[in-house]
């Protein structure tokens, strides 16, 4: 077999393919980008997506972002859909990445972070510790002391075992060598309703979910190192000197794994610019949701670190 002509032909084809990909990258984007959210409209992740869509055309050469809601499977059905799309950069997934990481640590799911290329991190959902407004407990240290001294286990609510808020609660209890009876509910609204009706003694859900319900539930602290923009007057566990493991859900943009380097780089730069846009920041401030501005590499590092830090908590929460 004459290999030289074959090598020459292969080299020509490779050069042509490279030139074609560079041309495509230079023209990117030339049509709307679909941003898939794995949850119903109106939730936290959806709010981030729609805030991005408001500023998208300024950063995408006039092209818009189309938000597509594909709920189901705890957000993972939408993720699987995007992972299976052609790697053109025109189909992206906006993930509540903490939930994806935790569920895959417990058991391999239909989709995981390994099926994607990280693009950017534009926000973060953070846990808060709530009690009913009628509760005599006023601070997080008081709650922990009550847990230590109680003859029976206190009841606490979360949004399903293995979920971000459940593992955040497990981290708080484990760090302080405490026990309580966990009761799962359907979504943060379910936990909030259980708090209001007195079905549980305390609950751990997104800190932003207390807005508008201040007369019904009391936020004791945010399980974070920094204060939450929705409730800036509320102290953090760190400020109180309370031991905890920070379990949050970064809001991460992901592209199908085989997206080429040039397109991935452009996407990262454009979405970081959107996350820095004044209009985006104002929308998120009004919604009371924290923002972030991490590029592709920082987002990938964030996910990898979370896998390491949270692995032990998944087993403890079973």
From TrEMBL:
PANTHER family: BLR1237 PROTEIN (PTHR42928:SF5), TRICARBOXYLATE-BINDING PROTEIN (PTHR42928). Pfam families: TctC (PF03401). Belongs to the UPF0065 (bug) family. Keywords: Signal. This is Tripartite tricarboxylate transporter substrate binding protein. It comes from the Bacteria. CDD domains: PBP2_Bug_TTT (cd07012). Residues 1-25 form the signal peptide. It comes from Motiliproteus coralliicola. The keyword Signal applies.
